[in-house]
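Annotated sample (chain length 536).
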Amino acid sequence: LGLLVSHSLYRLTSTTRSQSPAPALNPGTMLVNEFTVDSPNVQYTEDHITSRYDYQATKLSQVGGKWQVKPTTETYEFKTSRKVPKLGVMLVGWGGNNGTTVTAGILANKHGITWMTKDGLQKPNYWGSITQASTVRVGNYEGEEVHVPFKAVLPMVEPNDIVLGGWDISGLNLAESMERAAVLDWGLQQQLVPYMKELVPLPGIYDPDFIAANQAERADNLIKGTRAEQVQVVRQQIRDFQTRTGVDRVVVLWTANTERYSSVIEGLNDTTANLLASIDRNEAEVSPSTLFAVACIQEGVPFVNGSPQNTFVPGLLELAIEKNVLIGGDDFKSGQTKLKSVLVDYLVGAGIKPTSIVSYNHLGNNDGFNLTAPQTFRSKEISKSNVVDDMVSSNSLLYAPGEHPDHVVVIKYVPNVGDSKRAMDEYTSEIFMGGKNTLVIHNTCEDSLLAAPIIMDLVLLTELITRIELRKDGEPAFHGLHPVAVLLSYLTKAPLVPFGTPVVNALGKQRAMLENVLRACVGLAPENNMMLEFKC
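Output written by the structure step:
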């Protein structure tokens, strides 16, 4: 691996080079802020980074009743635009806890706002963001591991440069909404008021049949009219936002209330033609989130769903693929479920058999208030429950066909805890010779402070994915990745994938997929952790 590195590097861990032959217990690590790849397969121009990449996989077959695994190699060419656009982000639910928190966080970072708490001086950061606060290993230099910031692998939008806007069914300005949310320290809120009081959400789409009845008192900022008229209003709002702000690209993300599941009905929403006809007929079973998504796709604007409902009904998926507009989802993976997707992968991978997983939550924010309605809770229950399926099915040594751990999810609304959600999990597993192992975990999840960086990562990666093109050897022209954005899986509880694509929920595999595709775009091999150079 040949790397041309900049002179801007920092030692994260000091190393004392001893004359003793004993191995170092704490090998040094360097952070390199910029790099280029020195390879005949990689070219840099003013506009693009182009790489030729050999994708190695396997092909399975049965010969004479025996399985054969054949290594395969396919050559791809990646082309990534280096032109980073001025990005506009429009949030549906901008005035909610998540929307105000991500807005406040970007503004605090942009303006360098500090504040005092009982623990001392606090400085703004982007902790919790994979793009802004994690690193990627690129090699070893004279015995020291070398990493780069995740955001340095390919050119990415800086979060401080994002232009924010959006919709909310509540007409409060964002300063008032931030105070209502009660997520951030008061000393920080006071300093943000001058920046946020002028930010007022656009009217949103409200249908009381899809969310809890207790949300009605918030609903004072609404788009009137039929469903078809509402779609046209949203399309115009997106155009007006682009014109007013001068942004080059827009990404829309749903961070509004969890809706109940929509019924998928033949003739209603099973095809694009039927879905659009249902909107024209003002059919009641077309949800607000689906209307927003239709408007975005018709405008050529990527749409990401951060809630668990089935926004992407079959007709909407077909529309996105037909128009080649990126969509992604579903449901932010921030606390309890993220931990579950690590722990179950570890247990099954270690040959330990989880037989019971019981997950209990209580929270006191508006998300919890909305989830008190059984129909909206069911959406959340589905997205939380399916997260272990692929890990269980991967090990038929432990599980017989059709066997699955008992898996129960409970969510309760407790106003006193506010945004500080409590998550308690019990994992019971079978171990050696009939033994039992039980893990009990208590997790205090600052709900919106965990979700806000994920929102930021989702929109930044969505924008980046739209600048990546590829082609197989023999294909005449470059084309974009599939419009159903599987690369966003790391950030979602119920990853949206194209038909026929395996669903991967294990967190480590999801991160490796994302990192390795970005590495391929600059001609680097996947990080395989073999380190053969130190084993010879």
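Annotation: Residues 364 and 415 are 4 Å apart (CA to CA).
Annotation: The radius of gyration is 24 Å.
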